[in-house]
Amino acid sequence: MRFNLKRSKGTCKALLLLLLSLTLNLHNTFAQQGTNVTGLVTDSKGLNIPGATVKVKGTQKAVATTTNGTFSIAANAGDVLLITSIGYKAQEVTITGEKHYKVQLAEDNTSLKEIVVVGYGTSTRKALSSAVSTVKSEDLNRGAIADVGQLLQGKVAGLNISASGDPNKPAAVVLRGASTINSPGAPYYVIDGIPGGDIAGIAPNDIVTVDVLKDAAATAIYGNRAANGVIMVTTRRGKKGQSQVTYSGYVGTEKVSNNLDLMNADQLRAYVAANNNAFSPNDDKGANTDWMKAIERSTAFSQNHNLSLSGGGEHNTYSASLNYFKKQGILTASSLERLIGRLNVDQYALGDKVKFSLNISNSESNSNNEPLQNIVLLQAAKHMPISPVTNADGTYFENLNTTGYFNPLAMVNNAQDNTKYHVLMGGFVTEVKLPFDLTYNVNLSYQRTTANHGEFYGSYFSKYPTSNFYNNPDPGIGIAHTLIGSIFGTNGSALRNVYENTSKTLETFLSWNKTFGFHSVNAVLGYSYQQNIVGDGFQATSTNFPIDNIGYLNLTLGNPYAISSYRINLGNDLTYAKTLMISDFFRVNYNYKEKYLLQASIRRDGSSTFGVNNRWGYFPSVGLAWRITQEDFMKNQALFDDLKLRASYGITGNSFGIGAYTSQLYYGISGTYYNNGVQAAAYAPAQGTNPDLKWERTATKNIGLDFSILHNKVSGSVEVYDKNTTNMLYKYAVSSSLVPGGQIWANGGSINNKGIEVSLNATPISTQKFSWSSSATVTFNKNKITSLKNPYANGDSIRYSDPEGPGQTNATLQILKVGYPVGEFFSLKYAGKDANGASLFYKKDGTTTTSPSIGTDYFYLGSPQPKVILGWNNTFRYQNFDLNIFLRGTLGNKIFNATRADLSYTAGATTNNILVSAGGDKISDTKNSYYSDRYIESGSYVRLDNATLGYNFKNVVKYVNNIRVYVSGNNLATITGYKGIDPEINQGGIAPGIDYNNFYPKTRTLLFGVNVSFQ
């Protein structure tokens, strides 16, 4: 075939141009898309680094390394990959013609560069001159936990945290010992910058870090809310160029870990017969009932599901999550169901000089409480096993001829107790970077909590006598058993209330961060305005319902007006209150050559809750630190990688436990009188005014030593503190001739806490296949009341905690006494038995008697507060396996086992059950259950609190970065000599260490969970 040369030249030219165009287009296409390059990221020891960020520098293209440290990303020759990971120095790699790259990151000293959240800002660990402990999300406690307090148990030196098995009861949290006799003394929470945040609004999965501010140098910036410490909670935020979806969830089963060792039917029958006694035929029905098991589930189930989304572009980041948590209590009617939604958004503008941050969380909790829980627990313990739960006809067994004897299961199944709790928290932050290294912040926050509570007691309760139906309250000052049978009304009764609390806060502050030469200064000057409204709502009750299944949902169907003696309960007339707090604050941090550090702060607080003469208070602090390893004489030593000595002093205040009316005169109803023939309500003063009332004052001295040795394999800190609280707030009863109403709030007394805290972190083994990391905390604290003097009383002691056991009217267990700790046990001293088997007790003069005097023949018998608090966490990793083992415990504390005392009342063995341990006492010994040191036991224990075994799957499915499955066990084993159900007795409030016939059973939990992260 021949070609026309002339035509072929033009055709060839056209084809060449077409091919050139296609080649350029393909080149441009590949230049835009790039080719995939792969790589492996390891540390200096060759261990893979999962979750490292690999980014094409100058673009938004970024990926995260998989669990085995590998990555794949589109890049062109000449591009630069930026590889970063927390705890390692960033590294850049230039793309050449190779397709696979191995990148080794050098470890950074994270203990020094770790970011710590402090009041109105952040700091690095190396720049701190105050006592701050940080717990990261991966180090928080594991298990079916919905409470921040339980997440921190054993993790922070100085924190004494005790939790019950009740899913609806938060843990008691005490930092560095009890500091007041007025309020529970819990720390002040700040959540994502929202002051006073409600921890019920935060899902554990959303927490990134928890920073615990412990000494006054760290906390004084929060003024009169900081005496009990400050806990800063930071939740997850998105990262630029990193889009991620994660799911984590578990299901769990719980069983009772221990029960009271009560007599069964055969044991009780044998004991009564051996003591020549007999049961009433009304009780002995030939049964063998375990009443504790009757009110418990054989197995309780729990589940948790958390879905989170995060990511970001060039000028914004976002993070959102949805959490669902449900936990059945081991008591049949108790449970908690919670749904939490959270959204954090950061938007940058004006060349990233302005940042807008929006933080919103919304929590809905549905708490089913065990109706009359404390009474039910008491009745289940004392009910005799010879009686059945139900009669032959299916009705509940009752023997109302025995005083104070009621079927616990009948009470539970004929009553309802429910609270729906709603928490909305919102924060809007504007941060502007100004010239001259200035930054201006405006923080607006809003918090609303709503509690919708309902109770119903069916017509069944009408059969119970109102003359001996008492409550069973938790111990405290001035708390006694009271008759409550009147609340049951006629033909059923219902209570409904809804109350709302709101908090609006404006905080604005100017920060200056400047480095010049060897000098560095960070200063913050700010203003805070907070308005709180509590108790905005109402309450109503009703009775005389046509049927029981109405419950508390429709009060209008009751007919209370047909019952002449019934009075509708409209609640406390002082429920609603509005308070205002205005504050100015200033803090400056200075360091010279990162060697000598200074921090000083002062806050001026004004609060409407105090007396008119003391509305304003000043709270200063100062902290100094010396980084010894920066000195020239330390340059050639090889032991210490970091060594820092700190000292601080400051004053903080406490305004918790008081409200809008605390310092004011108010009136209440005081009987009736006839006014022109009409019986009208009379009003009289109920509380006197105190214009001089002011905040509690806590002054803290702290010396700390931070260290890191052996190339950062071992690090830790030691704190020594002396904390003294004065001007304690307390409500005093005085003569009405001195104070109208006979009640007044005043300042008086003081408490001292001295202690040592030790925190250690170590990595004993770290190889390519196996690693072991360990951390431990040890706390020593000594608490002592140093004064109880006040303007209205010169006494030096207060007796309290009155369980009102059989034959023991006014027999108290504890005392507030100068020279002794809060909650010191003060009771009778047991001296054994006389020749007739009757219990003997020591008199004050050292002789013995069978008839001791309440209060007079009392002795100081020990402290409920632990001398030592321990926590030890260990994590082992072998290839794709990980194992975490956590132990914690307390040493040196005492428990007053009032439960064992009351259930040892052998004289009542024909009408109430007793413990097996009481079988050695005679039935004629009517005082064997008297409260004495016989029932004071060691509360020391060490618990295998958690063991978790997990496995990480690599590259299972495309777009799935990681799948981790695990099994976890809680409360697996406890070493203790305590004879009660569990030695972890409440350590919060004024009456710690009392086992009070109402202990919610602890459980042993087994969880199965999975965590999945997606690209």
* Cα-atom radius of gyration: 33 Å
Which class of secondary structure composition applies to the elements?
mainly beta
Q: Would you identify the regions where 5 or more consecutive residues have pLDDT less than 50?
A: 1-33
Q: Estimate the global geometry from the Cα principal axes.
A: globular
Helix content: under 10%
Count of beta strands: 52
Major β-sheet annotation: 22 strands, antiparallel, barrel
Mean pLDDT, all residues: 90
Describe it for me?
The chain has 9 helices and 52 strands. It has 1015 residues and is mainly beta. The protein has a 22-stranded antiparallel β-barrel. It has a 5-stranded mixed sheet with strand order 10-15-16-13-14. The protein is globular. The protein starts with a helix and ends with a strand.
Short description:
It contains 9 helices and 52 strands. With 1015 residues, it is mainly beta.
What are the main properties of this structure?
52 strands; 47% strand; 22-stranded antiparallel barrel; 9 helices; 5-stranded mixed sheet; mainly beta
Lay out the secondary structure.
Blueprint: H1 5-33, E1 35-42, E2 53-56, E3 62-64, E4 70-75, E5 80-84, E6 91-94, E7 100-104, H2 110-113, E8 115-118, E9 121-124, E10 132-136, H3 148-151, E11 159-162, E12 172-175, E13 188-191, E14 194-195, E15 207-213, H4 216-219, E16 230-235, E17 244-256, H5 265-274, H6 291-294, E18 300-312, E19 316-328, E20 335-349, E21 354-368, H7 373-382, H8 408-413, E22 415-434, E23 438-457, E24 493-516, E25 519-543, E26 577-592, E27 596-607, E28 616-627, E29 640-654, E30 666-675, E31 678-687, E32 696-709, E33 714-726, E34 729-733, E35 743-747, E36 750-766, E37 770-787, E38 797-800, E39 814-817, E40 824-827, E41 830-833, E42 839-842, E43 848-849, E44 859-862, E45 868-878, E46 881-891, E47 894-897, H9 898-902, E48 936-938, E49 941-953, E50 960-976, E51 994-995, E52 1003-1014
Parallel strand pairs: 1-7, 13-16, 47-51
Antiparallel strand pairs: 1-4, 2-3, 2-5, 5-6, 8-9, 10-15, 11-12, 13-14, 15-16, 17-18, 17-52, 18-19, 19-20, 20-21, 21-22, 22-23, 23-24, 24-25, 25-26, 26-27, 27-28, 28-29, 29-32, 30-31, 32-33, 33-36, 34-35, 36-37, 37-45, 38-39, 39-40, 40-44, 41-42, 42-43, 45-46, 46-49, 47-48, 49-50, 50-52
